[in-house]
Amino acid sequence: MLESEYPEAAAMLIHDSYVDDVIHSCDTVSEALRKLTDTGEILKVGGFQIKQWVISGDHDKVDDKKLVDTEMEKVLGMRWEPKKDQFIFKVSINFSKKYKKVHTEPNLTVDDILKKAPNSLTKRMILSQVASLYDPLGLATPFTMRCKLLLRQLITLKNENDGVELGWDDPIPYQMYNQWIYLFTEMYELEKVKFKRCVRPDTAVGNPILVMYSDASNAAYATCAYVRFKLQSCTYSSQLLAAKSRVAPVRQITIPRLELCAAVLSARMRKVIEKESRFEFEEVLHLTDSMIVRSQIQKESHGFGTFVATRIVEIQALTNTDEWWWTTSTDNAADFATRPQHPSKMGSDSLWQTGPKYLTLSKEQWPISQPCIQELPDRSCITLTCDVKINHGQEASIIDIKCFSSYERMINTTAMILLLCKWKSFKGLLHNLTSADLKQAENYWIKIVQREFAGDWEKRFKRLGPSENENGIITVGERISKWLKDDWNQDKFILLSISNPFTILYIQHLHNNDHGGVDLTLAKLQRKFWVPGARKVIKLIKEKCVICKKIDKPRMEQQMGQLPDKRLKPSPAFYNTALDLFGPILIRDTVKRRSRAKVYGVIFTCFTCRAVYLDLTEGYDTDSFLSTFRRFVSIRGYPQTIHSDMGTQLTAASKEIRNMMGKWNTSQISTFSLNQGTTWSFNKSANAPWQNGICEALIKTVKRLLVIAVGECVLSFGELQTVLFEVANLLNERPIGLKPGYDIDMGAYLCPNDLLLGRSSNKVPSGPMGNEPDVRKRFTIIQTIVTTFWKRWMRDYFPTLLVRHEWHTERRNLQKGDIVLVQDNDLVRGNWRLAQVFQANAGKDGKVRDVVLRYKPLCSSDEYKGRKDRLVNRSVHRLVLLLPIEDQ
Q: Which PANTHER family has this protein been placed in (predicted)?
């Protein structure tokens, strides 16, 4: 209802509201007052009230309490004098520090610049002052252009000593310091310049004309827009509406290209003006002082290079080509904006604010024209020159076969070029290729290949029965030609050289059809061609084929690394410990016997004596695991080091264990152990269970013993914990190292209990214990037991550590930049992810066993969304090398 009753006021509120301001323009005061009243009526319905209105001009006689008479008003960041209807700039130079985003000291005046300016200026300080000059309409473009040029020079400035780019907080050189101080004083001159707002004069008749100027120099390019009104006195007036400028790129480009960039800027600003302005323009003119640019706009874009063509397309899409005119540089108002100007040259009656003088004349008197030149820079042309002799054995190759990676594309291209030579015109491209055309192209290349056999082919291939057919192609297989005809194949084989690129490209084409084996590809090749030594080339192609590598090639290997020192040196039990989890295991509740829950086994094993401690953890949280860990250290003491898998690296474990450990707070666990002098380390790479192999092998034995002891029974937590303790004792009774066998001199076998209990079994010891109260004898007995264990450890167990059980052969180290296929146990091999080696980590012996990979994350759709690369650690044994860096 309100929109139909007050349509103009409703449109004003919709299109001209900016947060809590309403900015609108009317032709007369009475129209403005009417819209103010209508707007107030619409806002009353929603319970809103207008605080105050400001109207341009002197309107003291208007009786309206909400109409405020003010000397200065802020309009969207700009300062506006309503009575004179003009914009002014307020300069605020202040280098003091800020407290709660407010400067601690007052702004500097013109006299204070030289006295109170800091002794050194930085990039950050200068940019802060320049950014405070807000000019959305570009009214002060000739002056701000000087600021932009000095800023570009400042940003690219480098230190004289080391050549490094100057930091944002580094002091600038003394020479530039003086330039900026002088510029800051000039900024205060800008406060004296008054910019009239572009409004329709009261005596204007008809619709105005929009005149767009564009120009460029070596330093910048710019555009400016003027509105020209026709008055009742048959005279004309013009006023600056808006301007825009850009600094020229650091990389030097030609003046015609900069002029074209200025034309694009002019077309874009024209689109914004027509969309946002309320003027209905009778005509729009684009003026440039470059005949080249004006002529380029009249041409089709496909005849130019990419730089020019893309810009011509945009200009032609936004404007009409007949709207572009040429004028001299002296009559181009945009030339004023491409060169730095002093604020005093931008007064109310200056060329910048009113435009060139000829704008006050009729259009017929303007010094403009529409010339068009034919020879233009950046113009592309196509020249076809063919010199082909279609004579027997005299073909000249007009095509570089090395430019093709596809046999079919090469044959099609050759057939089209032969058609062009036949028709002697581009009309040949309109002809659809036939099988005869493709056959002719293939015969053309066969003759090129067989030029290598010219002169001695009859003697050289005498054993193959060579001959020449009616097309001048050398064939072999004369002895079996009768048999070949009888089984519906060709009567002879075409002879090819294995070293020619055509032959290799054809073999590559056959291999790509099915990526078969060497014999299969060779059989397909021999259906038509006979190529001596083809088997070697087929093998080489198959070895380099990425798809074959993804499907068939084995994973990388590397010689087994050296054992860490902590496994080779005698130490107290569990001094260096490895940890792992297994499960889940189902238990029943002690009270509610039908209730079931899941717990997880935890295994601790000693690096040196291979002793085992087993326990349970009943929760998913960090505190539950720490409770289990505290039980372990209460019995065995804190280790010096603990090694384990963690979080997503537990890919060899069950999914539930991965989820459980993914919720652990690893920093809390590490801190808990670090306070007691324990260092916690983790596997370098994910999905590499062999890096914690001393636990993985024992878990297999634990599970087997649990099946034997428990079977399918469901125990309570305490019952299962008791079973695990007994299983741990059984494991600690297992022999380690060499077995006595039939050698009686080796004595009993060595087991972890020999160090933990001083005997292999947990039964009551049967040896002489002695009842003497002498402490020294008791100490001697204990030392003797420990010493005996380590002697036997060195004799029976240590030699077994010297043998490499697998990965005996030294392989090529992965290098940075290699393209690899990452094994994923959950996916089919053909769907494994491609990655690039980002960092190769060599071990102490110089062998690379762990690498950092870089790959693109998977997106939910086919469109790439610009996500950052991900880095992951992987063992080389989980990778397939597809493309070494030296082959790229």
A: PEPTIDASE S1 DOMAIN-CONTAINING PROTEIN (PTHR47331:SF4), PHD-TYPE DOMAIN-CONTAINING PROTEIN (PTHR47331)
Q: Report d(CA 91, CA 133) in Å as an integer.
A: 7
Question: How does pLDDT run across 410-444, given as a tens digit for each residue?
Answer: 888 888 888 887 776 666 666 788 888 888 888 88
pLDDT given at position 464: 78
The answer, as to whether pTM is greater than 0.85, is: no
Determine which helix (DSSP H) or strand (DSSP E) holds 192, and give its type and residue range: none
- DSSP 3-state assignment of 110? helix
Report the pLDDT value the prediction gives residue 335, as an integer from 0 to 100: 92
Instruction: For residues 174 and 119, give the distance between their C-alpha atoms in angstroms, rounded to a whole number.
Output: 10
Rounded Cα distance, 34 and 571, in Å = 98
DSSP code per residue over 513-548: HH---HHHHHHHHTTTEE-TTHHHHHHHHHHH-HHH
Helix H or strand E segment including 203 = none
Cα distance between residue 874 and residue 885, in whole Å: 18
Full DSSP string of 648-699: GG-TTS-HHHHHHHHTS-HHHHHHHHHTTT-EEEE-SSBS-GGGGHHHHHHH
Q: How many residues are present in the chain? A: 888
- From residue 753, alpha-carbon distances to 64, 568, 613, 749, 798 in Å are 103, 19, 12, 11, 17
CA 664, CA 625: separation in Å to the nearest integer? 9
Please tell me the number of Cα atoms within 13 Å of 607 on its side-chain side. 22
Which amino acid makes up residue 503?
T
Alpha carbons 699 and 705: distance in angstroms, whole number: 10
Where is mean pLDDT largest: 75-79, 156-160, 230-234?
230-234
Contact call for residues 871 and 683 (beta carbons, < 8 A): no
Q: Tell me if residue 758 falls in helix, strand or coil.
A: coil
